[in-house]
Write a structure and sequence with these properties.
Strand content: 15-25%
Distance between the termini: 78 Å
Shape: elongated
Helix content: 10-25%
Largest sheet: 4 strands, mixed
Structural class: alpha+beta
Number of helices: 9
Radius of gyration: 35 Å
Length: about 325
């Protein structure tokens, strides 16, 4: 008899909860179902996943399996006493005189078959057992699905309703898994931000045996904007200023998702300074909003006219401004 590591098959820790085991099984079963996966080996993998889940989802079978210890995968091992014959765990030992009664009938048995017998046997193992394993036909919630959705900055600011197509696997009447296209109406509330999850209740997989339908979770990504950079509810805008605007100050109209705004540039504004427009960013819960930060950069004419050159020359001659005076003090020696 060879040992199989069912926890490794499902990719969960040995102390995983029943809910974690179910989630892992459902995820792997969906990936490796022969009707969904294009892999030629998916059928065998799907069978292994089902075998592992059939044991670990049942508390009695899982307890008995855990009691086997942790032999290396595929290594032959001797089942404990009480697992004798074909009557399942706890059946009476009927071996011939001198034979190992606890080893009868295990030379060719599969580990999955062994645990399947636990549902029919009446005895126990290691203190577990007594009743037959209950059928797992209670209410089971439908599958939840995750999918990305891209939202423009304007829609994130004002809120909107989007239509999107989602393809989900569903079992047909014949039990085969098929891809079904659904059209979803998605309400994007004002102030939606990058990374936010929007939940569509009951739009996921169909529940079984009276269980609720699953949900669809939309993971929001904001589309790149030609002017604004987004940081949660704050917006950043590069603000080009002419040299005289930065020196003398100016009143400048700047764009914003809620409409153009008037920004005061103080005299003597330097490149890199952030000028704040409070409460003009993306809305926040509770009625407040983020800010807009206009990040100053100084721009110059690419092709100055003769008069502009003349004025700049006059300024250079008249000005005592020395922007690199600190070089002399801080340069390495």
């Amino acid at each position: 008899m060879q040992y199989k590591d069912y926890y490794q098959t499902l990719g969960v820790a040995r102390e995983a909860s029943a809910d974690d085991i179910k989630k892992a099984y459902r995820k792997l079963a969906r990936e490796h179902h022969p009707d969904v996966s294009g892999d030629a080996a998916s059928g065998e993998k799907f069978k292994e996943i089902g075998e592992a889940y059939a044991t670990l989802k049942n508390p009695e079978k899982r307890a008995a399996y855990d009691a086997l210890g942790r032999p290396p995968e595929g290594q032959p091992f001797r089942p404990p006493p009480g697992w004798g014959g074909t009557g399942g765990p706890g059946a009476a030992d009927t071996g011939a005189a001198g034979a190992r009664p606890d080893m009868q009938g295990f030379d060719d048995i599969d580990l999955a078959d062994l645990f399947a017998q636990m549902g029919a046997g009446r005895g126990g193992f290691g203190g577990f057992g007594g009743r037959a394993a209950a059928r797992d036909d209670g209410p089971e919630p439908g599958e939840d699905f995750d999918t990305p959705v891209t939202v423009s900055l304007e829609d994130a600011f004002h809120g909107t309703t989007l239509q999107m197509e989602l393809s989900v696997p569903e079992p047909g009447e014949d039990g085969r898994i098929r891809r079904v296209a659904r059209t979803l109406q998605v309400t994007v509330p004002p102030g939606t931000v990058e990374g936010q999850k929007l939940r569509l209740r009951g739009r996921g997989g169909k529940g079984r045996h009276g269980g609720r339908d699953g949900d669809v979770y939309l993971h929001v990504a904001l589309a790149p904007h030609p002017l604004f950079r987004v940081s949660q509810h704050d917006l950043y805008l590069d603000l080009p200023l002419a040299p005289w605007e930065a020196v003398l100050g100016a009143e400048i109209e700047v764009p914003a998702p809620g409409g153009a705004l008037l920004l005061t540039v103080p005299p003597g504004t330097r490149a890199g300074r952030k000028l704040r427009l409070a409460g003009r960013g993306l809305p926040k819960p509770g009625g407040t909003a983020g800010d807009i930060y206009a990040v100053v950069r100084i721009d110059v004419p690419g092709t100055p006219t003769a008069r502009e050159k003349e004025l700049m020359a006059e300024l250079a001659a008249a000005s005592s401004f020395a922007p690199r005076a600190h070089f002399a003090e801080e340069a390495p020696r």
